[in-house]
Automatic annotation (TrEMBL):
Alphabetical UniProt keywords: DNA integration, DNA recombination, DNA-binding
Gene3D superfamilies (UniProt xref): 1.10.150.130, Integrase, DNA-binding domain, Intergrase catalytic core
Coiled coil: none
Any Pfam family the entry gives: Phage_integrase
InterPro entries named among the record's database cross-references: CB, DNA_brk_join_enz, Integrase-like_cat_sf, Integrase_catalytic, Integrase_DNA-bd_sf, Integrase_DNA_bind_dom, Integrase_recombinase_N, Phage_int_M
Organism placement in taxonomy: Bacteria, Pseudomonadati, Pseudomonadota, Alphaproteobacteria, Caulobacterales
Keyword DNA-binding: yes
This protein's name: Integrase arm-type DNA-binding domain-containing protein
Boundaries of every Tyr recombinase domain copy: 205-378
UniProt GO MF annotations: DNA binding
Family (UniProt): Belongs to the 'phage' integrase family.
Record domain Core-binding (CB): where: 95-175
């Protein structure tokens, strides 16, 4: 192969290229960029009339010089009549569980909802599976898996079950790559369920909530407190938002003129953008926050560039000597809407950004009932600010 057909890219070009496609460096080496902007080095060659692609690694992990060295090794194998892919499989048979776990997280991350989910996978497979990370993946046994799971099984059962499922996925992927054979030692049904006790399921959907007739008095008390956490909790109650949506709220998500808060899809539980109509009470809170800053997080933490701590509102509730939970206010709102108003079920559910369980119904749903939701949230704000416990007024959509 002539020198002129090699080393077509410079290191600067490799760093700056962003157009999707394969960008040749010559000699079968390409920088591949997908539609999502993911960049990786690949080696392409033809064997038995078929095109073969071998991934070398991400551009961040592998320099241009390293990628060229790998490609040169593969070209030497081809010249000697050796199949690079077959040789790689031989090398891969000695891969550790840790290698396979990291590779699985990297491969699957683009399909997961957000970076936090990927970080959770990586953490559990690094911290809790530490005992088997250096073990060859084809030698991981049922006893190895039990040694990892048993210390957690009764102490933190939810974490243990999540870990078991993740180990099972990694080992399934290793088998699909030809790195191991036989039954998966982390499989539950018909295997580990015979060796570990079935864990007690937590009761879901019953976060301690404030009765709705106590809300006006609670909001009056909350309004006397000057902490950022108090304003954040007020705003959360008035909008029906989840904690994560509230804590990550930034000024670029707010349309002050139209009085709308648009939470982007990557911060929503359902992975879909959610528009929240802002009541006059919610807008008053934003006006107060604007006097402090109009950039970054609306409710900042220790520094303007960091969000409020996830524990701040919970600690505030403790200081108020309340045993209710932050998430419970969504239940409070839903109970009030059902019992004290005539707004439809669909409007109330959409105000909480709940997904539609019925797929047929979801397929026909086009709008987000925004104007009806605006009236609902204004009615809720009016009720919250009435200030007298037990004073309830039947509200109807106008």
């Amino acid at each position: 192969m002539s020198g002129r057909s090699l080393h077509k890219l410079t290191a600067l070009q490799a760093a700056k290229l962003s157009r999707p496609g394969r960008h040749s460096d010559g000699g079968g080496l390409y920088l591949s960029i997908d539609e999502g902007g993911r960049r990786r080095w690949v080696f392409m060659h033809t064997r038995a009339g078929r095109r073969v692609e071998l991934g070398l690694g991400g551009r961040r992990d592998l320099t241009l010089a390293d990628a060229r060295a790998e490609a040169a090794t593969f070209r030497a194998m081809l010249a000697a009549g050796t199949d690079p892919k077959a040789e790689r499989v031989k090398d891969d048979t000695t891969q550790t569980f840790g290698n396979c776990a990291d590779a699985y997280v990297e491969a699957m991350s683009p399909s997961w909802r957000n970076a936090k989910h990927a970080a959770q996978w990586k953490m559990t497979l690094t911290k809790y599976a530490a005992a088997i990370r250096e073990r060859p993946v084809n030698e991981v046994t049922t006893q190895d898996v039990l040694d990892v799971l048993q210390p957690l099984w009764t102490r933190t059962p939810e974490t243990a079950e999540r870990l078991r499922g993740r180990i099972e996925n990694v080992l399934d992927a290793a088998k699909a790559r030809g790195l191991r054979s036989g039954e998966n030692p982390a499989r539950w049904r018909g295997h580990l369920n015979q060796l570990l006790p079935k864990r007690q399921r937590l009761t879901r959907g019953h976060h301690a909530a404030l009765p709705y007739d106590a809300v006006p008095e609670f909001m009056a008390n909350l309004g006397t407190r000057g902490a950022v956490a108090a304003r954040a909790l007020e705003f959360l109650i008035l909008t029906g938002a989840r904690s994560g949506e509230l804590l990550g709220a930034s000024w670029d998500e707010i349309n002050l003129e139209k009085e709308i808060w648009t939470v982007p899809a990557d911060r929503m539980k359902a992975g879909r953008e959610h528009r929240i109509p802002l009541s006059s009470c919610a807008m008053k809170i934003l006006a107060e926050r604007l006097e402090v800053s109009s950039i970054g997080y609306i409710f900042p933490g220790a520094t303007p560039k960091s969000p409020l701590s996830s524990m701040a509102m919970a600690m505030l509730l403790r200081r108020m000597k309340s045993d209710i939970t932050v998430h419970g206010f969504r239940s409070t709102f839903r109970d009030w809407a059902s019992e004290m108003t005539t707004f439809s079920h669909e409007v109330c559910e959409m105000a909480l950004a709940h997904t539609i369980a019925n797929k047929a119904e979801a397929a026909y749903r086009r709008g987000d009932l925004f104007e009806k939701r605006r009236k609902l949230m204004e009615a809720w704000a009016s009720y919250c600010s009435s200030g007298v416990k037990g004073k309830v007024v039947m509200l109807r959509p106008s």
